[in-house]
Amino acid sequence: MSMRGEVISEEYKKMVWVHDREGKEYACYIDDLKGKIKTKEQLTDEEKKNCLDLNTVLGDSW
User: Fold this and answer.
1) How far apart (Å, rounded) are the C-alpha atoms in residues 35 and 50?
2) Residue 31 DSSP label
3) CA–CA separation, 16 and 25 (whole Å)
4) Which own/partner pairs from 55-61 qualify as long-range (CB within 8 Å, at least 24 positions apart)?
5) Residues in CB range of 57: below 8 A, 6 or more apart
6) What's phi and psi for 51, nearest 5 deg?
7) Strand order of the sheet with strand 15-19?
8) Residue 26: closest CA among 59, 54, 58, 45
9) Which element (helix H / strand E) includes 56?
């Protein structure tokens, strides 16, 4: 039996999704945001580097 689903599930639980004013979505680890959920505009440059712009993965039409 593969543990892949369990590993992915545990990582998923550590993430938050941050939206900006234009409606774009970013996936970030909550630990990288110092435990505080923020808007994209409130993120520091260091925090932004650790987030993934989901629009580049899924495309604008997602």
Assistant:
1) 14
2) G
3) 10
4) 55/24, 55/25
5) none
6) -100, 150
7) 15-19, 25-29, 52-53
8) 54
9) helix 54-58
Low-confidence ranges of the chain (pLDDT < 50): 1
Task: Give the H or E element holding residue 26.
Answer: strand 25-29
Burial of residue 51, with CB atoms counted within 10 A of its CB: 0-12 exposed, 13-18 middle, 19 or more buried: buried
- pLDDT, residue 11, reads 85
Q: Which residue has the tokens 């945001």?
A: 33
Question: What pLDDT is stored for residue 1 in this prediction?
Answer: 47
pLDDT digits (tens, 9 = 90+) for 29-45: 988 887 777 778 888 88
Name the residue type at position 19: H
